[in-house]
Structures are given as C-alpha cells and as structure tokens.
Structure prediction request, 240 residues.
Amino acid sequence: MKKYRKYLILLAIVLSVFGIYYVFSSKEINYIALGDSLVEGRNPYGEISYSYTDYLRDILKETKRLNYYQKYAQSGYQTSDMIAKIQEDNQLKKDLRESDLVTISIGANDFLGKIDISNLSLDVIKTYKNTIEGIFPDVEECIKEIRKYAKENLIIIGYYNPIPFLFNTSQQELDELFAYIDDEYQKIAKEYNAIYISNYQLFKENKDFLPNPLDIHPNSKGYQEIAEIIMEYLETNKVL
Prediction:
C-alpha cells in the first residue's frame, strides 16, 4: 500500500509541475512597442504599412500568446521625443506598467540629425564615432525613463546601415562604427536589465531589404525578418 501511495504522490507532483508549466508557457502577454518610423511601419516608398512590431504581434496572436498590443511611434522621433511622450502620456505609463514585453527602436534619428547624408564618404564616416558618442547619454536616459514603469522584458532594437549602396567596395570603417554602436547599446541594455538585438549584420547580408536608394526604410521582408529574430530570441530564452 505504501508503495502505491508513493507512486500516487509522485504522479501528483509530476502533474502539478506540468500544470504550472502549461499555465506559464501559454500565458497571454501585453506587448507595447515604442519608437520611430521603424515602429510606425514606414516602407521604402514613403507609405505607412506593417512594421516589425506588427508582424511580431501577428505571430503572438496566431500562437495565442497575445492579450494586448499597442504601439507608440512616430516618424522622426528622437530620444527626447520619446522621453517627453512617456512623461506626458498617462495611458502610455499605464500600458508600460502592465506590460510583459516592450520593444523600442530609438536613437537613429538622433544620429541622422547630426550628419549630412548627401555628403557621405568613407573618410567622413571615420569621424562619426565622435559624433555618435554624444547620443548614448540620451539613449540611456530614454531607457531609464521606460524602466520607471516597465518592469518586465525590455528589448532594444539596434541600427542597420541605411545606405549600403554607397559603400560597395569597403566595409571596414562601417563594420568598426557599427561594432562600436552595438557595444555601447549592449552596455546600456545590461545596465537596465534589457536585451539588445543588433540588426547591422542582418542588413549587411541582405541588401535587398533596402530596395530604394532614395529611402532608408526596409521593405516587408526586412521588417518580417526583424520580427522573426525577436520571436526566436523570446522562444529560445523561454521569455514566453
């Protein structure tokens, strides 16, 4: 009798563990997306369509892991705009407090606003490290502001080279610049218990993601790939 009782107790424990796992593994999450035109969904031809956050939303919805989705984004947003938005918008604060996942794309416009994109050369790019150094404190302040309210998973999405067609012969200077950017963003992410996902290598290897030489925004393939990379990270690291 004792032998059977042990088996029953063991079975109950196994079923309890499985039940707990099932509840957590099928949890529906609140997803908030923050950022600039990449979150707004601007395509290479000036139209607003699906962003990577919309594709990610669809994946979460299809797999029954989405409870709520909202994005706060606008083309041209810099870090100062995002900070002001958080401070002034009570609904955004509420959404961040109740979020399980937050993604943010920010900082690219800060950088682009400091350079003359019509006068680029590899020699000029060598000087950009000094230019971009001044941006990181603002990016950190933005992440700090988000973390006042969002206490769960926070993912920072990195830059890509928006003008690959100008530099077909040499990548060394660009590689060094973006390695530096990635390193600085990684430091900020670590400081605020966030995740940083780099996009530089992805877009370097897939120049077809940027089909319009006159526009810096990705096509749907580029946006979808970013969403899939985020989803892969969430599943691999058992965030969901």
